[in-house]
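Tokens for chain A. Residues wanted.
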């Protein structure tokens, strides 16, 4: 029988720091994400133009509960067209790649030509969640 260990606060900080050290891209979605699960690896309908395409994120490693336990990806998008956004995702590559996290907007924002959308996605490493 194998024993299982319990993670420490240092592990959460290390996980956050390791992920924050990797290039990340943010992508916006205009499709329905109602059926998303942890196994989902793509947005339903990723934005493909008009200043809303997938772009390199600024990545930081802030503290939420314990030192460095969070990976945070940020990007400011400048809309060149009208779109109603349903969510966003963090990706491992500038095209295709793996989706590491996503979220859906509780109230989908409708952006207009000339609007700026500041998107921040955070992933916190913690026990029991």
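Reply:
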């Amino acid at each position: 029988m194998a024993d299982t260990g319990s993670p420490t606060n240092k592990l959460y900080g290390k996980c956050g720091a390791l992920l924050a050290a990797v290039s990340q891209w943010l992508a916006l979605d205009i499709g329905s994400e109602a059926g998303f699960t942890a196994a989902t690896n793509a947005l339903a309908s990723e934005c493909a133009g008009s200043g809303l395409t997938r772009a390199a994120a600024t990545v930081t490693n802030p503290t939420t509960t314990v030192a460095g336990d969070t990976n945070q990806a940020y990007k400011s998008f400048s809309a060149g067209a009208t779109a109603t956004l349903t969510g966003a995702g963090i990706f491992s590559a500038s095209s295709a790649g793996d989706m590491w996290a996503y979220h859906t907007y509780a109230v989908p924002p409708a952006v207009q030509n000339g609007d700026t959308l500041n998107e921040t996605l955070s992933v916190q490493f913690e026990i029991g969640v």
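The chain has a mean pLDDT of 89. The longest strand covers residues 70-78.
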